[in-house]
Amino acid sequence: MEITSNFDAGNIDVISASDPSDIQLKIRLDAQSDFYQWFYFRLTGARGTECCFRILNASGAAYPDGFRNYRVCYSYDRDQWLRHDTELKGDVLEFRFTPAHDAVYFSYFAPYPIAQHEKLVARAQSAEHCSLQLLGKTLDGRDFDKLCFSVPAPDGSNAKKKQCWMIARQHPGETMAEWWMEGCINQLLDTDSELTRALLEQCDIHLVPNMNPDGSSRGHLRTNAAGRNLNREWAEPSMEYSPEVFLVKQAMAEAGVDFLLDVHGDESLPYCFIAGTEGLSDWNESEQAKLDFYRTVLADLNPDFQTKEGYPAKQPGQANLTMSTAQTASNHGCLAMTLEMPFKDTTATPDPMHGWSAVRSGQLAVSCLQALAAYLESGLMER
């Protein structure tokens, strides 16, 4: 019996694995950081044997409540990810599992490997209406790409088209964000779709499918290669510590921003919800109407999304300008929102087999594009 994590996005330290009834593990910290919670490992050689896994440092994770009522993801083929019950006992996350095959993978959520990200980007840019821009390099030397979906405006001039941005996976362990992005890209590649045509007649759509490829490959929860939480770097990013944010802000300044959706996952809350930028000092009824419109339309479109639960709205003047949405809304005067999806499952629309999943993340992306189309048609963007 052996436990390994020496692969893309792998994360676990083996304390003891000699006894199947007492497998002791610890999650590794993000590099140069105290954050940890993401794990991903493989067990081999225990087919038909009941194993008891104990993650010893669960209570010290970044979001320990994320392990309460949590169901671990497991897979034999790394395509289909199912759920299995766990229990948080004091400091320890424990679960018992009897593998049906020679090797089984366990993960905090369905992984989205770098190779899959690269394939997604390559497939997207092969479409005539999609262009790829290499924004620069990450600290680990990886290509850092932006996609743009665009078609000529009906009147032959693109000068009046809106510039809509969607970014994902600032926090690399929130892999549902890139599953969302895959669903978004699949929809935008479908030029026979009335939704896609309607959107691209009115706006260019800029996508950064993975804001943090270094952290993704390293198996981080929240930070990049320098240990920086990218969603706290937007006020003063640097090429030395947060080139990902620096390069995206630069691209935004060049193209303009009329809409931003920043896609995330929440470890603790069992809901899909959107957080706005109510804390900006110039927040007013017009801005509230835009936020309310988008959220209400999205809730009507997709039963997995709701508007009752989420983060408390900040009071005007209390915005955190180091975060992407507050900084972008402040700089560009646009509607900017954070979409959160659960690591666990939605309480109102639970799926006992899969929990919140890659498939549901992709479906929500299509609903978000439908809500964007409605927002563009509403005329609210002009106010």
Explain how this protein is built.
The chain has 383 residues and is α+β, with helices and mostly antiparallel strands. The chain has eight helices and 17 strands. It has helices at residues 114-125, 176-189, 194-202, 213-218, 243-255, 285-301, 324-332, 358-378; strands spanning 2-4, 13-16, 23-26, 40-44, 51-55, 71-75, 82-85, 87-89, 92-97, 103-107, 130-137, 143-149, 162-168, 203-208, 259-266, 273-275, 335-342. The strands form three sheets. The chain has a seven-stranded mixed sheet, with helices on both faces. The chain has a five-stranded antiparallel sheet with strand order 1-4-10-6-7, with no helix packed on it. It has a five-stranded mixed sheet with strand order 2-3-5-9-8, with no helix packed on it. Helix 2 packs across helix 8 (358-378) and helix 6 packs across helix 8 (358-378). The mean pLDDT is 97.
Reading off the top of the CATH hierarchy, the class of the largest domain is best stated as: Alpha Beta
The tally of strands reads: 17
State the helix count.
8
One letter per element, helices H and strands E, the order comes to EEEEEEEEEEHEEEHHEHHEEHHEH
Which terms would index this structure?
alpha+beta; Aminopeptidase; seven-stranded mixed beta sheet; 17 strands; globular
